[in-house]
Amino acid sequence: MIHELTIDGTTLTLDQVIEVAHHPEITVRLAANAIPAIQASAQAVDRLLAKGEVAYGINTGFGAFKDRLIPLNEVEKLQENILLSHAVGVGDKLPDLTVRAMMLIRANTLARGYSGVRLETLQLLLALLNRNILPVIPEKGSLGASGDLAPLAHMSLPLIGQGEVLYQGKRIPAAEVLQQLGLTPIKLSAKEGLALTNGTTLMTAMGAEACTQAQVLMTTANLAAALTLEAQNGTLRAFDATIHNLRPQPGQAETAAQLRTILAGSQLTRPDDSKNIQDAYTLRCIPQVHGAVQHAIDYAKSVMSTELNSVTDNPLIFEDESGEPMVISGGNFHGEPLALALDFLGIALTDLGNMSERRIAKLVDKSEAELPYPPFLTEHGGLNSGFMLLQYTAAALTSENKTYSHPASTDNIPSSGNVEDHVSMGPNAARHVRDILENLSVILAIELMSTAQAVDFRLNKHPELQLGQISGQAYHLVRQAVPFVPKDTVLYPYLDSLIEMVRAGEFAALVPPL
Description:
Blueprint: E1 4-7, H1 14-22, E2 27-30, H2 35-51, H3 75-86, E3 90-93, H4 96-110, H5 119-130, E4 134-135, E5 138-140, H6 149-156, E6 164-167, E7 170-173, H7 174-180, H8 192-197, H9 201-231, H10 241-244, H11 252-262, H12 281-284, H13 286-308, E8 316-319, E9 325-328, H14 336-364, H15 388-404, H16 426-461, H17 469-481, H18 492-503
Parallel strand pairs: 1-2
Antiparallel strand pairs: 3-5, 4-6, 6-7, 8-9
């Protein structure tokens, strides 16, 4: 773990965001080489005001009020008002790690020096982050254009001594914490309120976390699938590099190679058999399907990585060829690139759950008479239901994920008097992915729990057989939390433990990266 992170607006990585989000003890500092551009941008705003030039959001109203000129003596009040009026989010508060990621990402964006904020404003934002003073931010209310307005307004209120924060486990007014710690609220200057609230920060923060967790579950899914292949006496023939080299779709050959690594040394897979040449799709087509999901994760990662170091507010401050300040209004706040990537990610992860649930069904299906274990993974069926209801739970969550995977980006409700007539709905996509991941972790835990039970039936009959080198480690890791279940008992405590292990990445850590 890093102990200190220096940001300059151009070099922030997904891994760094996740580390800062999860570890409040990390100190975030502003790079010295970023300071001149920040100061020059703030000075450019002052020069524009002094010249009396009309610039959106600096001396005009916002949205549908873009043509309302604001008197010079009310420009500062304009910036305060945008925070006060826009902080209308609703719903559960965002998790601490998401808030920390938002604060870091917003600070990094402002550090580029195109947003017109003063150095002291940015430094106060970092001071709150470094002291783990976290604004209370409701999770709902953003359209994803003009950026994440409501969440960012809530994030920014403590800078002016307004709103609430979480500090040392307590939810208290921001003004009290600032006073207690000797921090002075700022009085916003021209452009600062707009710069703080205009951007894709919530989408990017949630997307960064989603991509990281998605990779954990992707690797876990490959591991669970490999163990299920052994439980069902499947064949490795479909993972041969020869066929995958003929279809160079991103992720496919790499996934096949990872499965071969996981299963290396396995004696529970069958050799070539003319009477049983190939397995069902959820085993035979793991490289093709899981590989496509991996490609979707990689795409989402690339979009989030680009967004971390992008300038996403509006308008932006530049200098013309003569060195005079120049304001350009555009639409970098629009979340469509992220919304599409998050929708794609949600669809892919939903299908990963589809694959896992179908493998679970095969593990318990009484119609699979040739499989080397009893129906529903219990020897005394009828008196015992065995693992029957675990598949029900997996099916319920798989179905729910199909609802969540409806693309949020295909919806549009115009706002601000139809001036903002197309919005991304990216924050909805981000929340859907979060919920899909939560369900997927349970589905994969159920597969691991079920396949370990099936493996035990095989090993009880043939104790001389060996699991694959890495799949065997996964089996033993399952058995640390879940014993073999010979008769019906209360299962949910075992499942809960396994879910936490899946989410914590304990299974994914067993597998070398692609």
